Amino acid sequence: MAAAGLCEAPAVADVLAIFGPTGIGKTALAIALGERLRAQGERPVAVSADALQVYRGLEVLTGVASAEEQARLEHRLVSFLAVTETFSVAEYARRAHAAIDAVLDEGGTPIVVGGTGLYLRAALAELDLRPPPPPELRERLKRELDAHGPEVLHARLDDAARARVDPRDAHRIIRALELAELGQELHSGDQLWTAHTRRPTRLVGLTMDREALRERIAARVHQMVADGAAGEVRAAEAAGASETARKALGFRELLDGDVEAMVTATRRYARRQTTWMRKLEGVELVDVTGHSAEDVAAQLLP
Predict the structure, then answer these.
(1) 259 and 274 part of one domain
(2) Which of 80, 106, 157, 264 is the most buried (most CB within 10 A)?
(3) Span 11-18, average pLDDT
(4) What residues form DSSP beta bridges with 285?
(5) Residue 229: which domain range?
């Protein structure tokens, strides 16, 4: 199997972490790794590092492991929050640290599985989190965004922030302006990751031929729709889904009934995930194109 930039793993790793773009097969690999660890006398437990898999009722849309898959490998930090509740990376970090430590205290091996970069770091390391802005500040900036558009607000950023933030990224623009008004600086992209993890960690990043991944994403989205993702979204909308729950990839597109727009948005997100992953210090990049989860697991855990 081809591998790109394969890095030497820690001599002793308490935690095994898997990162990769959506649709690449992280859950299947986690299960295959879990089976190999179990055969070696270990007790593996998966810990989700995903910003949206926390929501109960959005399991199909967010790609939570199925009941059958969870019977093969226990998954923690999935489906525990009502869609009406807001959630933050700070709350996730607290829960993830407790979950990982609990698995280790039980004599198990945590397999952290994620596709959300900031949440992966939150699970594995300590975060230097800023306090949330006053609600009235965020509401004022949102009104200005609605009135003038993201490009106008982007022009108000200082040179350093303008270089870091896409002029169409409304969320990051508002966050940068909030920090500026509070006298703080926007984190650079590099600060979304640190090699200084809480526990010795082996980090595996999955890659795939671009066209193969594009095809997998399209098939995955259509399968999600066939499995009821649109119904999940409509039910969440009717229940009064929170602002954070609405950030689930495909939520808005499925509300509009536009499946192809969801395919496009998912492919775009996967490109961003891959770009970020390739910059991670200490990551083992493994090309999984054309290989089964069992083959990849055998390479990683001979």
Answers:
(1) yes
(2) 157
(3) 84
(4) 4, 205
(5) 3-128+193-300
As beta bridge partners, residue 206 has 286
The two most distant CA atoms of the chain are separated, in Å, by 60
CA–CA separation, 289 and 241 (whole Å): 37
DSSP β-ladder status, 81-82 and 75-76: unpaired
How far, in Å, CA of 215 to CA of 210, rounded?
9
Q: How many domains does the chain have?
A: 2
CA 16/CA 29 separation, integer angstroms: 12
Q: How far is CA 189 from CA 53, 143, 194, 276, 288, in A?
A: 24, 27, 11, 9, 26
CATH number for the domain that contains residue 60: 3.40.50.300
Within 13 Å of residue 298, how many CA atoms lie on the same side as its CB? 6
209-231: pLDDT as tens digits: 999 999 999 999 999 999 999 99
Q: What angle do CA 186, 187, 191 make, to 5 degrees?
A: 175
Query: Is residue 164 situated within a structural domain?
Result: yes
Specify the pTM: 0.80
- CA 173/CA 186 separation, integer angstroms: 10
Q: Which of 17-21, 93-97, 169-173 has the lowest mean pLDDT?
A: 169-173
Distance of CA 30 to the CA centre of its chain: 15
Residue 107 shares a structural domain with residue 224: yes
